[in-house]
Amino acid sequence: MNGVFIGSYYVLIALGLSIIFGILGIPHFAHGSVAMFSGYISYLLVKRLGMDLFATLIISMLFAALVGIVLERIAYRPVRNAPPINSFIIALGLLMMIDNSANILFGANQVIIPSSYDRVFRFAGVSISSLRLYLLIISLVLITLLYLFIQYTKMGKAIRAVAQNREASLIVGIDTDRVSTVVFALGSAMAGAAGVFIGSIFALYPAMGGATVMKGFAVLILGGLGSFPGAIIGGLLIGITENFGTALLSSAYKDLFAFVLLVIVLIFKPSGLFGRKGV
């Protein structure tokens, strides 16, 4: 259950990255930092104003979506037609700027988002706290809603069209600027939810952004770039692998297990579990 829960957190991060990187081709390294900062927003709302954790989840997701829109407009859109190295450098710069801003504003110490959900459910020999169970259910709902939006709405079809061929999308009248804005808003909102999840179960600290986005890219590559089911399966596999490895060996090697799994899969299937050849 711990593996499934942490895997759902990785899925939220990876899906946000997937629609940003897979559709716009931008290596948004600040994605994990947006998740971290949104977690701190939730922490402040709970700690200072006494708000319920799940009420702050909505606010943190809206905050993250707004941050994503601003970053897309002022940082990435001006270099859309420039060489890819430009957006790569900007992404690294944003990562450092957001992480250091969080360090100045919130301090370097780890914090946990307080919660009153401390009941423990037991079934079939498995124990799980009510907080983890509720967060797991919410993550499943968010993943389902994102899938339905991408597959069945008019904007979702426009997003898929831009992912397949941006130039052809422009020819048939799709507003690619609007698509880029929506993609960043959706992806960042998923990151915002992930930040609240990790802050309420584990801890928040300013330097976690880089490690978070690296794990997100690991999930993307493991599942296969551009694959929605791949991001879900990849996130769950890494989460479960980490927890089994931690139980059998040591938590000191937690991150090692994920990347060992990634290397093993890529040796036998270079395109990832659900990736297409050449992607």
Protein architecture, described:
This protein has 279 residues and is mostly helical. It has a single domain (2-268), classed as ABC transporter involved in vitamin B12 uptake, BtuC, CATH 1.10.3470. It contains 11 helices and 2 strands; from the N terminus they run H-H-H-H-E-E-H-H-H-H-H-H-H. The protein has helices at 2-24, 31-49, 53-76, 84-106, 130-152, 154-164, 166-171, 176-201, 208-223, 228-248, 254-268; strands spanning 120-123, 126-129. A two-stranded antiparallel sheet has the order 1-2. A hairpin with a 2-residue loop joins strand 1 (120-123) and strand 2. Helix 1 runs antiparallel to helix 10. The longest helix is centred in the last third of the chain and has 26 residues, at 176-201.
Topology record:
Blueprint: H1 2-24, H2 31-49, H3 53-76, H4 84-106, E1 120-123, E2 126-129, H5 130-152, H6 154-164, H7 166-171, H8 176-201, H9 208-223, H10 228-248, H11 254-268
Antiparallel strand pairs: 1-2
Helix pairs in contact: 1-5, 1-8, 1-9, 1-10, 2-3, 2-4, 2-8, 2-9, 3-8, 5-6, 5-8, 6-8, 9-10, 9-11, 10-11
